[in-house]
């Protein structure tokens, strides 16, 4: 499925948060959305997912949704949002409960996503027994269980330590490459954007405007190689150049309030 944002603006009462954002997320593509804190990234993701009605503009979703897809636009939350009294498998099952599936289909889907997220051996464990990284795997598994057409992720790794983040990113990539799920990935971490995305949309400070869309042409599978280092460093500098001053000003504005 392809998602198109056309002239999206949003305000909360008197506060204008987003201004005239137009961009396209193509089928199978991962778009990273970066920008200073408070610029409207989560708001934009909410609009994409249909949780929020924009003040102006529209979201167009195009393309067929496969029959196996139970929920075309699916969120992964930063804080995992797991139920502590349910096992890993039952947390994943939660996403399927309101859908008309046979017990067999349900079991098969759960087994499949637990396997693809490396959780098969933890099906009967409880969230409290797992590390943060493993808990977020459960969050991802739950999102994937509905076989989403588009995965919407709001800083899914930001609650994790750096090492866990790196490990999970590599696993995400394996999964992406295999499933080619269309994804929008909000982060304030340039390295995550540079590792995962096919293109990076850079927003200005609030009100968030689209400053630039930076395409990343090196295939994800080659970004870990030393040959890619120079180009990735160049892109990092470019992205940082775009957001540094904005972030600094936004920081001062917040401090001034
Ligand atoms: N429900 C809301 N009502 C009023 N203001 C909000 C609401 N949600 C977010 N905001 C404000 O809108 C701005 C953008 O928020 P958000 O989209 O969360 O930014 P980001 O995710 O980029 O940090 C912030 O100033 C925030 O305080
Ligand atoms: Mg946010």
State the CATH architecture of the largest domain: 3-Layer(aba) Sandwich
Task: Describe the global form.
Answer: globular
Structural class: alpha/beta
The N- and C-terminal alpha carbons lie at a distance of 41 Å
Number of domains: 2
| Ligands present | adenosine-5'-diphosphate, magnesium ion
Classify the oligomer.
single chain
Strands side by side in the biggest sheet: 5-6-7-3-8-9
Quick recap:
This protein has 257 residues and is of the alpha/beta class.
Descriptive notes:
The structure is a single chain. This protein has helices at about 40-50, 90-95, 105-115, 130-145, 160-180, 190-195, 230-255; strands spanning about 1-10, 15-25, 30-35, 55-60, 75, 150-155, 180-185, 200-205, 210-215. It has about 260 residues and is an alpha/beta fold. The chain has two domains: about 1-65 and about 150-255, 3-Layer(aba) Sandwich (Rossmann fold), CATH 3.40.50.300; about 80-150, no CATH class. The chain has a six-stranded mixed beta sheet, sandwiched between helices. It has a three-stranded antiparallel beta sheet with strand order 2-1-4, covered by helices on one side. Strand 8 (about 200-205) and strand 9 (about 210-215) form a beta hairpin. Helix 2 runs parallel beside helix 4 (about 130-145) and helix 3 crosses helix 4. The chain is globular and about 50 Å long. It starts with a strand and ends with a helix. The mean pLDDT is about 90. It binds adenosine-5'-diphosphate and magnesium ion. Magnesium ion (MG) binds next to helix 1.
């Amino acid at each position: 499925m392809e998602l198109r944002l056309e002239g999206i603006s949003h305000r909360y009462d008197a506060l204008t948060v987003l201004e005239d954002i137009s961009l396209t997320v193509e089928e199978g593509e991962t778009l990273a959305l970066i920008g200073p804190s408070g610029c409207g990234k989560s708001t934009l993701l909410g609009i994409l997912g249909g949780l929020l009605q924009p003040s102006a503009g529209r979201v167009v979703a195009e393309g067929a949704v496969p029959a196996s897809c139970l929920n075309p636009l699916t969120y992964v939350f930063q804080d995992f949002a797991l139920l502590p009294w349910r096992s890993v498998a039952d947390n994943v099952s939660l996403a399927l409960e309101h859908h008309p599936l046979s017990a067999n289909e349900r079991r098969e889907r759960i087994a499949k996503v637990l396997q693809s997220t490396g959780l098969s051996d933890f099906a009967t464990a409880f969230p409290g027994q797992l590390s943060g990284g493993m808990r977020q795997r459960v969050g991802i598994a739950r999102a994937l269980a509905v076989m989403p057409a588009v995965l919407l992720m709001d800083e899914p790794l930001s609650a994790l330590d750096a090492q866990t983040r790196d490990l999970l990113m590599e696993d995400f990539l394996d999964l992406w490459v295999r499933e080619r799920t269309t994804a929008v990935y909000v982060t304030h971490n340039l390295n995550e954007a540079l590792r995962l995305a096919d293109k990076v949309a850079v927003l200005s400070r609030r009100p968030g405007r689209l400053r630039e869309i930076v395409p990343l042409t090196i295939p994800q599978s080659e970004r870990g190689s030393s040959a890619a280092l120079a180009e990735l460093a160049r892109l990092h500098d470019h992205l940082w150049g775009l957001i540094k001053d904005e972030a600094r000003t936004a920081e001062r504005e917040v401090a001034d309030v």
